[in-house]
Amino acid sequence: MAKDNLNKVFLSASIPYPDRDKKFYDTADIVSIRDAVRALATVVIPQAHLVWGGHPSITPLIRFVMGRMNADLKKHITLYQSLFFEDNFPPDNFAFENIVLTERRSNRDESLELMRNMLINDNDFKVGIFIGGMEGINNEYELFRKKHSDVLILPIASTGAAAKIIFETNPQQYDNRLLYDYAYMSMFRTLLSNILH
């Protein structure tokens, strides 16, 4: 059985779309985004509790990792998803035991804002990890920084996109490995060693 006192890890990640803001897509390293998400899930899920907001490019990656693990580890993850997207939920959503469905609001932005606020405010996180992403990652970063100002924040700049922009706003604040190290499994084991049981 999973432990109830697992440290919680917040993941904010997505793969930028080419038809959205070019500043995210042009620097995105899609292979690295996928590798980083898979490595993070592999390192975190057995020993901590991974929490993220559903994104169709990220949830299948985490489900893939989960498929290779013991079923009891389903209690080590929580997926948040807005009912605004109910008609387009990927089948992967239903593979997770812990899924928090937040209310549909009058439009997409308000629905996402509610989901993000619940996700970030209702959990006691020990670390926030930002991988790839677009404007939503920036929004989640600002919310997370305000609510969890004293915890470790890791923008994985080598994945490009929003994570790289976050890193570059204050590079001296972050470990240089976030920019240059592509050995994600080893990097996460090192940087998260204090929160992994």
Written account of the structure:
The chain has a single domain, classed as Rossmann fold, CATH 3.40.50.450. 38% of the residues lie in helices and 18% in strands. Helix 4 runs parallel beside helix 5. With 197 residues, it is of the alpha/beta class. The two termini are 14 Å apart. It has a 6-stranded parallel sheet, sandwiched between helices.
Q: Tell me the β content.
A: 15-25%
SS content category: alpha/beta
Helical run tally: 8
The first-to-last residue Cα distance is 14 Å
Shape: globular
Cα-based radius of gyration, to the nearest Å:
16 Å
Order of helices and strands: EHHEHEEHEHEHHH
- Using the coordinates shown, work out and report the CATH topology: Rossmann fold
Helix content estimate: 25-40%
Instruction: Give the low-pLDDT segments.
Output: none
Strand order, largest beta sheet = 4-3-2-1-5-6
Number of strands: 6
Which CATH class applies here?
Answer: Alpha Beta
Tell me the CATH architecture.
3-Layer(aba) Sandwich
Let me know the largest β-sheet: 6 strands, parallel
Rounded mean pLDDT score: 90
Number of domain modules: 1
